[in-house]
Each structure stands twice: as structure tokens, then as C-alpha cells.
Design goal:
The complex is a heterodimer of chains A (420) and B (225). Helix content of chain A is 55%, strand content 20%. Chain A has 420 residues and is α+β, with helices and mostly antiparallel strands. In chain A, α7 runs antiparallel to α8 (386-397). The longest helix of chain A is centred in the N-terminal third of the chain and has 54 residues, at 3-56. The two termini of chain A are 33 Å apart. In chain B, 42% of the residues lie in helices and 24% in strands. Chain B is built from eight helices and 14 strands. In chain B, strands 2-1-3-6-7 form a five-stranded parallel beta sheet, with helices on both faces. In chain B, β1 (2-6), α1 and β2 form a beta-alpha-beta unit. The two termini of chain B are 22 Å apart. Classes of the chains: A alpha+beta (420), B alpha/beta (225).
């Protein structure tokens, strides 16, 4: 749920509840006050009637009062202390209709007789007043609520704009890209602070990344020299004396290990270089021709494993580094040979939109880790970096590489122009 | 031939000097920028092995000075930097070749020999070894004046052997030379065995002695001894 929605909901809900409660209280109070006023008027009338009766020893005429009715009745029993207010109806002779009214029933002593006097006043004016007040209150409530809603809706979303901009910039932030996160101008303290924190964090991350990168670079270069020394000393050692068969086997193992180490090392350096986009010799490459020459280069490997190669190649020009194109093909071809079966098949297809290498081979079950570094099947003799490098090369140029297995065929597809 | 090794890592230049110093080769060495500049200015070499990271200055600077002096010395850059930029700027500045550390001494020797051959014989690029004559430029081989038909790989292999005669050459080094280090052969050297076998057979058919000796399963040695 969005912050503004949540805020809106709470805000409007509490406003409604508070307004309803105050509305009810308001209504009740006004009602009470108006009734009190009516009752006072009625009491004044009562007083007047009583004084008139006492002075003139007769009852005043009922018709002589405006907007109120007075009626007399002889009290049946001795109800000297009858005096009560009640809600009744009032017949308005002018309008000829029933209206809500307020009555006071009281007794007047006339010549020793108890007369029951009922004074009724119309409540219609006070009711109208209450209704008007209620309507005004409701209207104000409505206006207030809709204003609140609109404020939340438009002002809030505009107020939060810097936040969303910052968020977007954070989402697109890439540690390898060296440009700084631009400041979004804002006057809100919280957002200024957020921006500053984000920028500080980005700087820190970039700094850490630079440190790590220069450490890796330096470490690799420092590692190269001892490796070169080991290699050259081994070569020199070989020239010295005659060795026994056993010593020869030991030397061979050392050679294999140093060979692996330097290849591993070069692969890691290459990966780092591709990631940092340090390979710049972008040029137009006749990919079809490159695939054909690579196929010739691998011919010997294909033949030795008894692999039949089918190639369906269309003309395709790619703009990329020739060096990386070479590596891409090497890795895909090596992979197709290495994980093949004796007498298997390799199908190479190049179209305008994709380059596909399919090969027969055994089943395996680490598909989701296929392009990860150092992920390899147990019987593989490689280092597990080939496909990782291939994927990096694809990433660099916006190609998409995918793996599928259909009917014992392992299919690696590189799709060009996925950006468009 | 006369060679200058400009390299600051002692263990490394010692090995290189030991490997190159025989058969009348003269090898000198410089471990820093100053010494190297001095030697380059004073003498002429058939080939200069140049390390890019030197104490006291950049190796590439040395190369451009050499070219300003209009010297014809061959230059082979040996660098730990597997960087395309360095390679390109090195070759642009007039280096003849670029080899990335770590390398096999036999590969280094083969490349230096190739540079020296190109420099010295200007087109007449021929290696002679007893009854074998290899015209590198024309890719033609004769043994006792009979032409020998070799495949491209067998030819490369023979030239490689001849550049490293009397040295043990490992199968790793041969594999990297023939296929490049980009193709990962997963330490499978059956190929080498097949190619060497074919080469030996073809040379034997042409009536040469058996110069290619297998050495404790690690590699081969091309020797008349």
C-alpha cells in the first residue's frame, strides 16, 4: 500500500468519525438550548395567565395569543401540583397544517376551582433552525473531507516527488558506472537529508568497489610475476639433467597445475575487464566468416571425438570487439565439444537474430547455475569460467544468452538486438 | 644473435639468459630504465626483450626512444599486462611482437627467432639444420633436396622445434603455440602426440635422421645428438 493511500485512509476515517461525533453533540446541544428557550417562553405565558387570573378573576381569552394556543379544561380531581412539559403537535390555523409543538400543562386556581391550562407553542421555527444548522454542518464536513482528499491526492504526491525520483535513481544505480547520483532540488529537509545520505552511500559503495577492484588488479599483476618465474624455472629445470620416468611424471603434474593456474588467472582478469567495460576495440565483424574460420580451427577437435557438424549460416554483421567475439565462439565451441558424447552431433546456426549452438550430450541438473562462475559438472575438466565469461560478453553488448534442453540436445542461443 | 633482456625480476631474467645463452648467442640484460636506455643508445641488438613495468620509467617510453633513434633492433614486449590497449600501443610504436606473462621459454625463443630471422634475412627467411632446409616465408621444406609435404600444424611444429633445438619443449608449450591459449584443450595432449608422430614419419620418409626425441613423457627434444 502506498504511503499516501495509507495516510489518506487514516486521515479521512478519523475526520469522518470526529465530524460525526461533533455533529451529534452539536445537534443535541442546540436542540436542548432551543427546547429550554421554548420552555422559558411557555413558563412566561403560564405566569401571565396566572397573574391575569389572579387580577381579574377570570381566564384570558385563548385567541389573544400569537403562534400559540391556550386551552382550558376543568380539572377532574384536585391536581394542584400538575405542571409538565411535553412534545405535542401544534395546529397552525394559518397554514392549516399540523406542526410539531411544545406544550405546558399547568393548573390555575380560579374561584376555588382548579382549571387545567394547556399552552402549546409551535416548534417549527426551532426545528427549522436545527435543520439549517445540521445542513450547514454536513456541507462543511463534505467540503472539508473532499478538500482533505484532494490535498492528499495532489499535494502529497507532489510533495513526495523528490522521494520517488531518488528511489528511481537508486534503482538504476550501478556500481560499475562512475557517474554520481544527481541531486533532485527540493526544499523539504527530510528529502534533502535523504538525498545526502543516498549520495554519501553511493560514494562509499563506489569507493569500496574501486578499492576492491584495484586490489584485484594489483593482486593479479603481482601474481603474474611469480607465475612467470615458476614457469621459466620449470623450463630451465627441464634442460638441466636427465630425469627418471618418475620425476618426469612429477614435472608434468607441476606443468599442468601452473598451466591451469595461469589460464584461470587470465580468465578472471578477462572477466574483470569485461565487467568494467575496458575492452574497447569495437568494430564491425563479419560474424559468419568468423564462425566459419572458428569451425575450421576446431575441425581437429570435432574429428577426434567423431562429431558431425552441421552448419546453417546466414550473413550477419555484429559490432563488437573481435577479441571478445573470438572468446565467445571459443567458449561455446569448446563447451559443445567437451560435453558431447563420442560420435555425437553439433549444430551451428546463425541467423539475423540469433546464434545457436546445439550439441548432443549427457543430462545434467545444474541448469540454473550454468552461467555462474566456477559452476561445472563433476566430470568437466574446465574451470567453470567459460560460460560465465560468455554471459558477460553477451551482457556487455546487450545480447541475451539462454540454455535449453530439447530431446537430448543441449541448446545455447545468443539473441542479438534484444534492446530493440 | 645478440639479445638484450630488459626485465627487473631477477629470477625471470636469469632463466631467460640461461635459456638463450648458447650456440653463439650473446645475451645482455638491463634491470632498470637508466641501464636500458644506456645500452640501447650504445649498442645494437638483434632483438630486445622489453618488460613494460620497469623501475624508473615506462617500457613503452623506451620503445619510442628507440624508434626515434631510427634503430632497427627487433623488439618483443613481455608484459604481465594482458591488456589490449598496451598490446596495440606497443605494436603501434613499432614493437614486433607482444608476449604475455607467464610464458614458456620455448615460446619466447620461437618468437625471438622469428623476429631475428625476419630482420636479418629480409625475405630470405630460411632455417637450415643438417639436411633439413625450411623456407619459412614460402612455407617449403626440403630434406636432402627432396620436398617434404607437411600440414600447416606440422610445419609450425617443425619451425618451433628448430627454434628450440637441443632444448626440451613441453607438450603444454607446444599446444599453446599451435592452438593459442584461447582454446582450452583441457590438458589433453593427444593432438600433440599425433602431430609429432606424423611429422616424424614424414621426415623419416624423406630420409632424415630421427631428430625428435621424446623426453620422459613431458615433451620432446629436437636434437642431432
Amino acid at each position: 500500500m502506498k504511503l499516501s493511500t495509507r495516510y489518506n485512509r487514516v486521515n479521512i476515517l478519523t475526520s469522518i468519525i470526529i465530524l460525526i461525533i461533533t455533529g451529534v453533540i452539536y445537534y443535541l446541544f442546540i436542540h436542548l438550548i432551543l427546547t429550554n428557550k421554548l420552555d422559558k417562553d411557555l413558563a412566561v405565558e403560564e405566569n401571565e395567565i396566572k397573574q391575569y387570573t389572579r387580577t381579574y378573576q377570570k381566564l384570558p381569552l385563548p385567541a389573544s395569543y400569537l403562534d400559540q394556543q391556550v386551552s382550558y379544561a376543568e380539572s377532574q380531581k384536585n391536581a394542584n401540583d400538575v405542571r409538565e412539559f411535553s412534545y405535542t403537535t401544534y395546529f397552525n390555523p394559518k397554514e392549516n397544517e399540523e406542526e410539531p409543538g411544545r406544550s405546558l400543562v399547568t393548573t390555575v386556581n380560579l374561584n376555588g376551582k382548579n382549571i387545567l391550562v394547556t399552552i402549546t407553542k409551535s416548534r417549527v421555527e426551532s426545528e427549522d433552525l436545527v435543520r439549517v444548522i445540521l445542513l450547514i454542518t454536513l456541507a462543511i464536513t463534505g467540503i472539508l473531507l473532499s478538500t482533505l482528499f484532494l490535498i492528499n491526492r495532489f499535494v502529497l504526491s507532489r510533495l513526495w516527488q523528490p522521494f520517488y525520483t531518488t528511489l528511481k535513481r537508486m534503482k538504476t544505480f550501478e556500481v560499475t558506472k562512475m557517474e554520481a547520483i544527481k541531486e533532485e532540488p527540493t526544499k523539504i529537509d527530510e528529502f534533502i537529508e535523504l538525498n545526502q545520505s543516498v549520495n554519501a552511500m553511493a560514494e562509499r559503495v563506489k569507493g569500496d568497489y574501486r578499492d576492491l577492484k584495484s586490489f584485484t588488479d594489483n593482486a593479479s599483476h603481482e601474481m603474474m610475476t611469480p607465475l612467470a618465474v615458476i614457469n621459466s624455472k620449470l623450463d630451465s629445470l627441464l634442460q638441466t639433467e636427465t630425469f627418471t620416468e618418475q620425476q618426469g611424471a612429477l614435472l608434468e603434474d607441476i606443468y599442468q597445475a601452473t598451466g591451469r593456474l595461469s589460464r584461470l588467472h587470465q580468465s578472471l582478469l578477462l572477466l574483470a575487464k569485461i565487467e568494467n567495460n575496458l575492452i574497447a576495440d569495437k568494430q564491425d565483424i563479419d560474424f559468419k566468416e568468423l564462425v566459419e574460420s572458428k569451425t575450421r580451427q576446431f575441425q581437429e577437435l570435432f574429428e577426434r571425438n567423431g562429431l558431425t557438424v552441421e552448419a546453417k549460416l546466414m550473413d550477419k554483421t555484429l559490432t563488437m570487439s573481435r577479441y571478445l567475439a573470438d572468446i565467445l565462439l571459443n567458449n561455446l565451441f569448446s563447451n559443445a565439444v567437451r560435453h558431447n558424447v563420442q560420435g555425437g552431433k553439433i549444430i551451428i546456426e546463425l541467423s539475423k537474430s540469433a546464434f545457436v549452438v546445439s550439441n548432443t550430450g549427457k543430462n545434467f541438473d545444474s541448469k540454473e547455475r550454468l552461467f555462474n562462475r566456477f559452476s561445472k559438472s563433476s566430470e568437466s575438466e574446465g574451470m567453470g569460467l567459460g560460460l560465465a565469461i560468455t554471459k558477460q560478453v553477451c551482457n556487455l553488448y546487450g545480447y541475451e544468452i539462454s540454455y535449453n534442453q530439447i530431446n537430448q540436445l543441449h541448446i545455447f542461443s545468443v539473441f542479438f538486438d534484444t534492446k530493440q | 644473435m645478440k639479445i638484450l633482456v630488459i626485465e627487473d625480476e631477477q629470477a625471470l631474467y636469469e632463466s631467460i639468459l640461461a635459456y638463450f645463452t648458447d650456440e653463439g648467442n650473446v645475451c645482455e640484460h638491463a634491470a632498470d630504465f637508466e641501464t636500458a636506455t644506456e645500452k640501447i643508445e650504445l649498442y645494437t641488438y638483434d632483438c630486445i626483450l622489453l618488460d613494460l613495468g620497469l623501475p624508473g620509467g615506462e617500457g613503452l617510453e623506451l620503445l619510442s626512444r628507440l624508434k626515434k633513434m631510427n634503430k632497427k633492433d627487433g623488439v618483443l614486449i613481455i608484459s604481465a599486462r594482458h591488456s589490449l590497449d598496451d598490446r596495440l600501443s606497443g605494436l603501434d610504436l613499432g614493437a614486433d611482437d607482444y608476449l604475455v606473462k607467464p610464458f614458456h621459454l620455448s615460446e619466447l625463443k620461437a618468437r625471438v627467432s622469428a623476429i631475428v630471422r625476419r630482420k636479418n634475412f629480409d625475405g630470405d627467411n630460411v632455417i637450415k639444420f643438417n639436411e633439413i632446409k625450411v623456407d619459412v616465408a614460402a612455407m617449403k621444406i626440403t630434406a636432402n633436396d627432396t620436398p617434404v609435404n607437411l600440414t600447416k600444424k606440422e610445419f609450425d611444429l617443425l619451425v618451433y622445434f628448430l627454434s628450440n633445438k637441443n632444448k626440451v619443449v613441453t607438450k603444454n608449450a607446444m599446444a599453446e603455440h599451435l592452438w593459442g591459449d584461447e582454446i582450452d584443450l583441457s590438458d589433453d595432449f593427444d593432438f600433440i602426440y599425433t602431430h609429432v608422430k606424423n611429422l616424424k614419419k614424414k621426415l623419416a620418409e624423406a630420409g632424415t635422421s630421427d631428430y625428435v626425441k621424446s623426453v620422459y613423457g613431458i615433451g620432446y627434444k629436437f636434437t642431432s645428438l
